[in-house]
């Protein structure tokens, strides 16, 4: 009873933390403008149905603004303002940001060097505001955002950036990022990129017009110093448009820009509604579905739904409790949370598919999140097949752990795994994208899942577990254990496993562990799968090894098929089936490790230990292939 009380208390704490995290992840993200004053009063929701032409693709205004402003302010945004508000404010009221800490410096090393130079200059010059300026420099080290006035006006910072720019290997790319942010924030650049006016005459290949076309002087309403740079692209470009419609658009944009500069929120809101109503009328056949644009905006407002990793994470906790303590309620709770996470994950995948018009597997963000979804789908299918076997819950546990890691990477590393929806590279316009790529990323997820049970197996061995392994491999163990009475087969494993796990934890085994995960009882084909058929010979190690082998057998077949399909696609696209590209080489290396595993398992005595170590090593090579090869080493697969 004492044990059950601890379990119930832990579950209540988990539920409370989960509710808090979900509330923070949704309410905090959906709130578009958390800043006060004018920012809070402006309603930019009508612009969610306004399309912006960007690099050959039509985006919703909010997703376009998200892609643009994060290059200036970083992924966290600026002072709680929505990306759309920040974009328009930089364009129409640039004076507010002249000395604001808004330009984000990505590299922490470069950030520290710049902060040192700024502090040296402040101490040398002194002055009555030296303390405040030193405090801002200290904040810069933490936030990474610095004032444009400091970047362009501080001689020490300018000299430092000039020196860093000469080091093309280590630091030039970070200087380029700063210079790009400085250029993007200018009103002229922002007005030029805000291409919201469809061509009055033309087709899908005809460039759209920017907001400079909506003013008589061709300035777009930007600051006078930048007007000459912004005038050229769109000035006088509304010829061929209905006169009344043209006049209405020019008036609406004029009201919008003037109201924005005057901080007249009602005036801005009315003009935004007018623009959203009039712009689709310019060339209706060219304008995208407005409902799709709204959903695209909502997708980004919801943070791409990557925050749903919390459901997977808590399902991992409950499924581990079910495995260790044998509490059926934890198993069902873990299953419920897994289903909730997988449902939201599926919604995110389907929504991205809908707004992009293609299956999401064309960049790193899509590949990682889609691979995790494949793992979840496979885990549910295998869980159904293993519901009467000792493997139940463990397959879900592996998928939940991998999905947690994948979605956390998408949530916390938006610069490396950019969620922006872009066009596919020309080489990807091929049916093999949907065959080869999906097979490969599916195999990668299965490799990661197998490493989870392999890692638990190694901990089990560290705690004193014996040389246990599944006698019939993975698929064979699943088939032989899925018979009547195999659900009782879990009882015997704990009697051997409990002392080992207790050794890892440094405590005595919990009450109920051995009573719930037991293999003794009916001694049928389930025992043959995990312990040779004799009562008392099964263990948790055998079950863990069986799950590892099941997942590795599947990944081995899929990885081999994916490599062969990739060779066919490479021959079709590049004129050769194999070119020793870095990504090709490391995909082959991963396959070789699993081929070695198969042969080693046939020969060595301690099969479970070797299997676990090679599974972990294979997963490490796979992760190296998906990270270092993609982000550090340039090759033909750098886009993937």
Q: Based on the structure, what is the oligomeric state of the protein chains? A: single chain
> Termini distance?
53 Å
Beta-strand content: under 5%
Order of helices and strands: HHEEHHEHHEHHHHHHHHHHHHHHHHHHHH
Evaluate the radius of gyration: 29 Å
Overall helicity:
55-70%
Mean pLDDT: 81
Sheet with the most strands, sense and barrel status: 2 strands, antiparallel
- Secondary-structure-derived class: mainly alpha
Shape: globular
Per DSSP E runs of 2 or more residues, the count of β-strands stands at 4
Figure out the total of helices: 26
Model regions low in confidence, pLDDT < 50 over at least 5 residues: 26-34, 225-236, 483-528, 531-538
> What is the topology, as strand order, of the major beta sheet?
1-2
